[in-house]
Every structure is written in structure tokens, then in C-alpha cells.
Amino acid sequence: MQKSLKPSSDRTSDILQAEKLNPLDAIFAPQSVAIIGASEKVGSVGRTILWNLISNPFGGTVFPVNPKRHSVLGIKAYPSIAAIPETVDLAIIATPAPTVPGIISECVDAGVQGAIIISAGFKEAGAEGIALERQILAEARRGNIRIIGPNCLGVMSPRTGLNATFASSMARSGNVGFLSQSGALCTAILDWSVRENVGFSAFVSIGSMLDVGWGDLIYYLGDDPQTKSIVIYMESIGDARSFISAAREVALTKPIIVIKAGRTEAAAKAAASHTGALAGSDAVLDAAFRRCGVLRVNSISDLFDMAEVLAKQPRPKGPRLTILTNAGGPGVLATDALIETGGEIAPISSETITSLDQILPTHWSHANPIDILGDADPQRYTQALEIAAKDPNSDGLLVILTPQAMTDPTQTAEQLKPYAQIAGKPILASWMGGADVATGEVILNRQRIPTYAYPDTAARVFSYMWQSSYNLRGIYETPVLPVDAASGLPDRHLVENIISTARQAKRTILTEDESKQILAAYGIPIVATCVAKTEDEAIKCAESIGYPVVVKLYSHTITHKTDVGGVQLNLPDADAVRRAYRMIAASVEQKVGSEHFLGVTVQPMVKMDGYELIIGSSLDSQFGPVLLFGAGGQLVEVFQDRAIALPPLNSTLARRMMEHTKIYKALKGVRGRQSVDMEGLEQLMVAFSRLVVEQRWIKEIDINPLLASPMQENGENSSLIALDARVVLHEPEVTEDQLPKLAIRPYPTQYVEQWTMKDGTPVTIRPIRPEDEPLLVQFHKTLSEESVYFRYFHLMKLSHRITHERLTRICFIDYDREMALVIESQGEILAVGRLSKLHGTKTAEFAMLVSDRYQCQGLGAELLRRLVQIGRDEQIERITADILADNYGMQRVCEKLGFKLERTAEATVMKAELVISH
Q: Which pLDDT belongs to residue 269?
């Protein structure tokens, strides 16, 4: 029953206030700066930084620190930071690496809040440097100092004038937040930006990220009203969970564009030696970027092209582009570039062709690209564009102009100005030529129509725009609730017993039978499997299953059975089974030794009328467990048709994962064959993802093949069945606290509990999930105007409260940053409570809504009690909320749970605060 603290933007799922102090303010907006290592020596880093600070006034005081000088550049110098008579917000350290831990200790004692360590010689230099970093971090934690660097160029805040770098020039002020791991690249970008007139809201050389990482800076720039887009040069991801958490939240409102060095193995090694960081798989990084709505590009020019276009034009709703041109060749070039980068040529509707026939010469192309011929005047351009824009098959438009005898580039640009914003479709332009088209380009750019010298560049930019739109849509599409969510939980006890037994026996490889039992415990269909340790047992198994059968090696040590001759197929009778048993035993003995043969498994010979798929999971050095889906079977490594994603999955993310493979088209039905059970396959992948998330002792697991059979002509249903499975556990010496963490925090099942209301009604209290969006729509229909007013501090129409865009921010939460609990009974949500961490602090704010029909049943008090406990679990030190002065019910609930209430500067608002002791 608290308000949204920023009603104008409805921050119900992100109730941070821009006006609240962020610890990084000490770095980006300091009132006093000390430069430790300030020097008179020409060309030195210490002199350059000091000169940059005093020659670009930022509204604060600068204190040089140099124990050997009384003044530096005519400014009084101090022997140490402790000697400075005022409190220092930011310390810039440009001294040899071994001195830095002691300097940070002095900064802590002096109350400094932020530091930039310019010095190199830390983890990139080896073990000694790593030890220095540990000392620095220990001191910083003692005083809650936030540190950028070490080994960095520094920080610029062009809007305030702060230049805390040793770069040779100051960045222009603008709306792009630029973050880079390479200081040298920063200086190159700086030179380029001055030439291209690109401006920055922040310009940060992040260095080796000892403390402040990508996530901290993305959150900071996300809250900064001056920043409209964020561009990043990345060499290593650092804290993967922090990056994904921040990017997923901020990318919804501000484009985040990344160029990541190290696509090739050689480049990855060079980046690692530069940053001292391990490089994860590039394909996994792509998957991570997709998961959090980040757009990855391949060149520096694309980096800033995308920052510009996403700030000027709406994202396309689909991949289909309409190309309008006065010359055939450029249209063909644009088409090639579009198709190669994942876009599509928009088909032109018959209505559009009819309309264009009425205004274009007879010999126009009658297809897309729409060639309006070389004598096109401004009127023909605008009429054709207006018609093409109305075609429902088109998701965006590209207008190409080549200067020909009858062409007027300037007047055509003038005529296009009214079409800068066309019903949610982006419009791009390519004015080809030099000086002749320059004035037209200026006109279009001022009208927020991005222009490009070459049409293939423009087409590639459109494809990137669609990729960005596609990534974001995948995050916030409402998924389907898993089938087992209501019917019951997986048999975790069985799985834990299997894994525990294997670990006690010091085994890391589970048998095929054990592996399949684990799959079945999570609802994944498996082929019947019978273990036989003698020939006679194998025959008995085969006769109970029914011929024909398959016989496979049973072993505690071998996982790839085919490699040792451990698979015999299509066995029609007992004699064949007996021969198969002996052949497998002999082959294993010959190739690896008889101790690896423990018997065989017998399975029915499944009719292979379908598609062989692989679903698996393995570990990435930076992101932990990752999922794989693709074409399976024995040639899986030859075809390399696969997609990678990060767990956990929901049905939408599972479908998106499938869409990134070639076999996906076949699964949907091809050449007269029916589709496989796509919904069933989605749910199977969700169940597999859940298994990976919950069973952390599993190091690797794959199902290969998973047979997906399409609907048969005789009406037989599509089927999905795991024919083989492999599970590898972590080594016996690995302890629970050493197990890899997921890059994305999974659904927190520990907070799911049953509870009883005052009237005896049993309810479930659980964390919110994306699938709850339809239930929240119904919940909002039960709220009175008073409840809405108490929650948001103003009345809000139901139609606004239940928009998809708004509810996604409430249901699709990052459990690392906030926790929302719902009270549910028989498929109805009765109440919602939320606890949101404030960026960069150990403070959180709570908010709550209870359906009018269920008020005075103790729901509010119980929700708040649980949110406080979650705060304790998450190491939160302070929980606050703003409450209307006449919302007495909520005030009583807060007081009951130990909150202190105080009046604020607004007479109508009370502040509730609880300090949590740990």
C-alpha cells in the first residue's frame, strides 16, 4: 500500500529514485578530488591528470598529493591524503602498484568514498599482482570505498566537466554512456568522436574491474537521465551474474550495444593476457547477451551507428524491410546485406502494387526493392514512401537515393521530413554520393532519420535493430506455465539418492540406467531399460520387453559406448542377444580392458521414424552451467547444428533456443511431414533446465538421441522419448560451496510455503513468476480506487495497470535484485508484496497490495514478515517504504513488525524504516 516513488514512469517493479545518492556519485560527481602521485614531470601520468582536472572545471576542489613537493602546477600539495584539511570524495591514484594497498588504507581512514586506480602491475602481471589486489580489496571493503581500475585510463563526466583521465582531450557532452576495458581504445574513440561530433554522458575506462564492474556501471548509467544509450568495449565479462542482472533491467529502456573482443581463439588469448581474465566460450557469451537484451556488434562503427539509430527510431516489430530506390544496383546490394545478416525482404501486397501502379512509371520493378527509376523527383519519392509504409507486410523502410541528372537530393530530403516517424516503423536513408548529397544528409539527420553513405550499411543496421527487438521480446513474452507446476514436483528424493550413492562410491560417471532414472524423475519420457549382468539375464530382459531389442554396454566408467563397440541394434531373437552380449564383452576387453565391462542394458528397438535431437548441459568457465539443443545422433559433432542458452528456461526461452537451429524448420513440419509436438518439446526442455538448475552435483548431462517423432498419417500421436542419456558428476573432492553458480538466479523455491488465513482458508505464498501475468490482470480487477490510491499515491486506470509492458516489469523479475511474493489460492492471486534492492547499497524498499476482498485477514502482515526475513537472508541492512499519512492500516502493520515511522518533508507522506541486525 505504498506509492510508486516515481509515479510519472510507474516504477512499481523498479522503485529506485534517481535523486537518491549512489555510491558511484563520489566517482562521477565529486565535490573534491585528490590526485595521489601528482607531478611536475612533463609527460607523466600524474601531471596530465592534474592538468586535465584543473583545465576542465567540474565545480569541485583539486588537491595534489606529493610528499616531495610543496606545490604542483602552482597548487598547494599535501604529503598524504590524511593531511588534506577537507573530506575528499574521490582519490585518483597514479603511483607504483606496491604502494597502492597502503594508499587505499589511508583513504579509508580519511573517509574517501571513491577511488580510481590508474596504476598497472596487478593481476595482469601474475601472482604478485593478484596478492596486491587482494590487499586493496580487503582495505576497500573495510571502508566501503568503490574503486574503478586498476590499469585504466580514468573517468570523464563531460556534462559536469570532470576529466579524471590522462587522455589528451576532453569528450564532448552528449547522451551516450561509453564503457571500455581498453584504455588505448578509449583514446582512439575519443579522437574519432571529436571528428564525428559524437557526445558522451560518461566516458569510462574500466580497467581490470577489481571492484566496480559492468553491472555497477550499467545500473548507474541506467538511472542517469542524461544517458540515452550505453555502448561497451568488452574483453572479459567479469561477474557474469551482475552483468546479466543489470543489463536485463536497463536494456528494456536504454539500448545496450557491445563489441566483445576475442571471437577467435587467438584474439581470446590476447584479451586474456591483457586483462588477466579467463575467456569463456564465445557462443555462450552470445547466448548471455541474447538472454539480457544486449545487442552485440562486430565493428566500432556499428557500435555507434546502433547507439544513434536506436535513440532516433523505433525498433522494428519484425525482420521484413521495404527498400525504396532510384537505382537497381544499390537495391540489390542492400538486399544481399539484409539477407546475410538475418533480415528479410518484405513481400509487397497486391493492394500496395495497385496503389504504386497509379503513381509510378510503367517500368517500375513491381517487386521489393521498389525501383522508382532514375528520373524520380521528390514527389515520386514521397508518394511511393507513403504507400509502402502502409503495407502491413513491412516492418521498416530504407530509402536509397543516387544522384542522377534529374535527382534533387536536397529537396527530396526536405519532402521526406514529415515521414520521420511512421506508425512505429523505423525509416533509414542512404544518400549516396559526396558533396552533392551532403545538405540532404544534414536535413535528414536533423529530422532524426539516420543516413548512411552506403545502402548495405543501412540494411545491416536494420538487421541489428531487428535482432535487438527480437532479443528483448524473448525476455518479456509471457510463457506457458509448465504442466507439472500444478500436478506435483519432480521426484527429487530419488535423484538425490542416485547421486549420493554414486558419490559415496567415488564414481563420477552414472550408468545409462541411473541417468535415465534421473530423467524420468523430472518427467522426461525414457525408453524402457533393463540391466543384465549375464547372458541369460539379457535374454530374459529381451523376452519381457519383446523383440527386436537393442543391447548396450553397462559400465561405471565408459560413457561413449559406440567408441568401444558397445552398441548392438535390431536384435531379432535370443541367439542374437547372446551373440551381442559376447561381442560387446570382447570388444570392451580388447579396447579398454575387461574391468570396464559390468554387463549390458536391454531396450526395445524403437522405430527411428523421426528426428534425432540432443539436449545437454555442460560448464562454462564464466557462466557456469549452460544448455545445448540441436540435431543429435552419432554425427552431432560433424553437423554442429546447435543452440546454446543459459538456464533456467521457460517455454518462451525454450522455443527461442530451438529457433536458433537449422533442424527447427524440420521439427515444425517439412515436405509433407507433420510437425512434432512442439509444445511438448518446449516443456521437456523446461523440465531438463529445471533438472540442471536443481541438481548442482551434476557436471555434465546429455540426452543423445532424444527421438522426436512427428504425427503419423495413421493418426498416431507425435512422441518424444530419450533413447540414451549420460550424466557426469563433479569430482569427489569438490565441496558444496565449490559447485559452480548459475549465471542467472533460478526461481527461489525455498520461499514457497503453505499458510492459513485467519478464516481458515489454506493458501500458497510463493515468489512471483513470469507465467503469473494473466493472474495479475484478474487481481487488478479486484482493487478499489482507495487501494490503488494508497499503493501509487494517485489514481491509475485499470487499462494502464494491466498493460503487458507494465506487468512484464512486475512478473519478469531478477531474483538477485528484487523479490516479489504472491499469496495464491485456487489459481487466484490475493496479495502481492515486493522487496527491491537499491542499486549499489544494502538498502531495500518494499511495496504491497492486497485484494479488497481479502483485507483484514492478516495477509499484509504475513507478506511483510516474510519480506523482512528475505531481507535478512539477502544481507540487506535497511528496509524502507513511503506510506500515505492516512493509510493507517499499513502503518499499523509496519509498527507491529518493528518499523519506525517518521514524517517526511511532504505532510501527506510517512517514512517507514527497519534496521536489520545480522
A: 55
Whether the predicted pLDDT of 198 surpasses 50: yes
Q: Which phi and psi angles does 403 have, rounded to 5°?
A: -70, 110
Residues 80 and 318: their CA atoms lie apart, in Å, by 60
Residue 65's identity, in one-letter code, is V
Sign for the pseudo-dihedral over CA of 450, 455, 461, 467: positive
Which helix (H) or strand (E) covers residue 335, if one does?
helix 328-340
Cross-strand bridge partners of residue 489 = none
Please, what is the angle between helix 651-659 and helix 455-476, to 10°?
150
* Omega before 225 within 30 of 0, i.e. cis: no
First-to-last CA distance in the chain?
27
Q: Which residues contact 434 (CB under 8 A, 6 or more apart)?
A: none
β-strands 600-604, 549-553 pairing: antiparallel
Classify burial at 634, counting beta carbons within 10 Å of its beta carbon; exposed 0-12, middle 13-18, buried 19 or more. Answer: exposed
**Secondary structure (3-state) at 91:** strand
Strands 370-371 and 320-325, sheet pairing: parallel
For residues 139-152, average pLDDT: 93
CA distance 230 to 251: 9
> 297: Cβ–Cβ under 8 A, 6 or more apart, which residues?
257, 258, 259, 303, 306, 464
Q: What span, in angstroms and rounded, lies between the C-alpha atoms of 890 and 489?
A: 36
Residue 117 in grid coordinates: 586506480
Cβ atoms of 708 and 611 closer than 8 Å: yes
Encode 799-839 in three state secondary structure: HHHCCHHHHHHHHCCCCCCEEEEEEEECCEEEEEEEEEECC
> What are 859's three cell numbers?
495477509
DSSP for 66-79, written as a single string? -TT-SEETTEE-BS
- Please enumerate in sequence order all residues whose Cβ is within 8 A of that of 286, keeping only pairs 6 or more positions apart, or say none: 296, 644
Grid cell 554522458 in the structure block, residue: 201
With cell 514457497, the residue in question is 752
Rounded to 5 degrees, φ, ψ at 49 are -65, -45
- Record the cell numbers describing residue 271, joined without a space: 584479451
| Rounded average pLDDT over 617-631 | 92
Over the stretch 763-772, which tens digit does the pLDDT of each residue have?
999 999 988 9
The single-letter DSSP state of residue 526 is B
Phi and psi torsions of 813, nearest 5°? -95, 160
Distance between CA atoms of residues 314 and 466, nearest Å: 10
Neighbours of 230 (CB within 10 A): 29
The dihedrals phi and psi of 883, each to the nearest 5 degrees, come to -130, 135
Q: Say how far apart CA 381 and CA 409 lie, in whole Å.
A: 11
Q: Is 151 left (phi over 0), alpha (psi -120 to 50) or beta?
A: left
Residue 183 binned pLDDT confidence (cut-offs 50, 70, 90): confident
CA 771/CA 811 separation, integer angstroms? 8
More confident residue, 638 or 270: 638
SS3 665: helix
* Residue 46 banded pLDDT, cuts 50, 70, 90: very high
Q: Dmax of the chain from CA atoms?
A: 100
Q: What gap in Å lies between CA 601 and CA 595, rounded to an integer?
A: 17
Contacts of 803 (CB under 8 A, 6+ apart): none
Instruction: Kindly report the pTM of this predicted structure.
Output: 0.86
Does residue 549 contact residue 603 with C-beta atoms inside 8 Å?
Answer: yes
Q: Is residue 677 classed as helix, strand or coil in its secondary structure?
A: coil
Cα gap 848→834, rounded to integer Å: 6
Q: Copy the grid coordinates of residue 126.
A: 601474475
Query: For the residues 552-566, what does the mean pLDDT come to?
Result: 88
